[in-house]
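## retry 2 of 3
previous attempt timed out at serialization; input unchanged, resubmitting
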Amino acid sequence: MDYFPANRSSFYPLITGLVCLMTSTGCNSQPSTVKATGKVILDSKPVSNAEVLFESLEKNGFSAMGITDSNGIFNLKLADGVLGIVPGNYHVSITTFKRGDPKEGIPDTPEIIPVEYNERSNVEVTVTSEDNNQFNFEIEKQKQNSKTNSKWRK
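## retry succeeded, writing output
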């Protein structure tokens, strides 16, 4: 017994219609988001062009990212570009490192944020269902001890 029509071209509109019906009824719908913004300050100065990543701590959660402007301010967006973030618990990392392109003569952008906020970040935050989530990160580089880091010792 053949369940598919002999003329397969009439079958595709049926499949397309079913897919549209499933996606419009929430099968693959966009999660509800809230606005989340913040500011990144390093040694009392705003950090521009830093990537601020909120990685969900929940199974099948959504992550969001923002890029700081010249005032250090970021607005989080989901991967598909939707402004906002899904409420929940997140691990936060901040980085200024960007890989350059040696073929084009573009050097890497150096990392200026301490590793405690990127590679070894333990920063965790909770995004609430309220629409006014504000996350400010005031970072200070560790002051170097002049006795142990001095090149000129007698």
